[in-house]
Amino acid sequence: MRSISLVITLFVALVVTALGPTRLVSEARALAAAPAPLNTPFLPASAPMRVTIASLTAVNLSVTTNVTIRLADNTTVTTNRYTFQKLSLNSNTVITSNNGTSTVTVRVPGYGSLGGTDSAGKPQTTVMWGNISRLCVTVILQICGIQGLLNFFGSLIPLTAGASGFIGDIYAIRTMDDHAELSETQNPVHLPGSLTVTTP
Amino acid sequence: MTEDEECSYGTRWGVALCAFLPAALVVGCLGALISTGALAAGLVVQGGSINVATSSVYGTNFGAALVDQTAKQADGTTKTVHVLRLGFANGQINGLCLTQRQSFLGATYTVMIKLGDSDPATWEITTKNVVMDIQRVNGTLDMDGVVDLNVNGPDVTTIRDASGNVVPNPLDSPQNRFGIQGRYAKFDQITGDIQDLQIPGVFNSPSLDITITPGVRTCPAPAAPSGTP
Asked: Is A44 among the domain residues?
């Protein structure tokens, strides 16, 4: 009889879970009054993402310094805004968000993208708010660091020949595609790899 | 030990069959209802780590947020785990397979649920909403339109209510958590572990297959989808 009851329990549990109430999403968490974004199009979480990219290409990169943004914990931080044109990820990209209790990791070992082209085929922008502590471009000799690249190239840094060693602590990223459609296959954000959540 | 006592530990297949058949009938009716699209209730699969495989999940108004989830452990106790909750409004799924291990009389069995067909060119399971709690998955995540990374979790939106208004914090995220917002998303060739999967509203699927087999089984590797939904 024990085996019978367990068999019944197993099947009933299966049916009940298939028909069970959707309690996990049926009651949205009550929202406290959230602060309004400041100099970003949305309110970013306060823990910046650590972004590392072994190799990337982009049409160009421009930098705006001393941008004050507001974070979700209602603090503000003065940081930089980086604008890429058609940002492609060539190898080994890792985006990590660690809020102290858990870590979300997006890992793209090969080719991916964080930017695309518009409906006219022109490069579209990817904007990052934060601090890029390392980025290297080889022009006979390797030049590393945003300030060094600005000193060498001027306000518009060309990255069509590629860049390497990207390391950034980024509060927010926005990519745009003005011709998004259901059947669109040229998606500006293309992340083939893995998504993991780890808790210490 | 007497012969009678030995027999009491054996499997009474005939009697067990009597228990299986009514339950299997219920499951079969459930599948028939889903196949006709007449089932108003949704699908909720939860209760521990679930292995998932699908050729593709596609949806508009895509969002993701880091949330807390209660998970049952092997010893029956529960603990809070952190998962990345993905929400696809107006979701479409291109084949879906879920497996979960169960201990039964000291033996391990695998419950396998398969929905949809095996044609990688069709997103045959249609829903109003798909929610998936991720622990570790592989796949290709494509996002289109305006895409934002590190959005404050409660600000992420996916579904709308009956009046057409955006439902606030549909993923039930605490404040100040990592989030993603995109106009469209297509997550291809997903394999890995999830904490649960929910299709809360009406959904249609051409088939539903539930099997329980002894031993440890995993879903077959999903084929790459062809074309677009």
From this structure: no
Out of A3, A174, A177, the one facing B11 most closely (by C-beta) is A3
- Residues A1 and A86 occupy one common structural domain: no
Token pair in block for residue B155: 């600000």
| CB < 8 Å to A105, chain B | none
Per-residue pLDDT reduced to its tens digit, B105-164: 788 889 999 988 889 999 998 888 889 999 899 999 999 889 999 999 999 999 999 899
Q: Do B104 and A6 touch (CB under 8 A)?
A: yes
Domain housing A24: 1-34
In a domain, A121, yes or no: yes
Question: How many independent structural domains does chain A possess?
Answer: 2
Residue A194 burial (C-beta neighbours within 10 Å; 0-12, 13-18, 19+) = middle
What is the interface pTM, i.e. ipTM, of the complex? 0.86
- Of A59, A95, A94, A64, nearest to A78 by C-alpha is A64
- pLDDT tens-digit series, residues A134-170: 999 998 899 999 999 999 999 999 999 999 999 999 9
Is A21–B147 a contact, with Cβ atoms under 8 angstroms apart? no
Asked whether residue A42 is domain-assigned, the answer is no
DSSP three-state, residue A109: coil
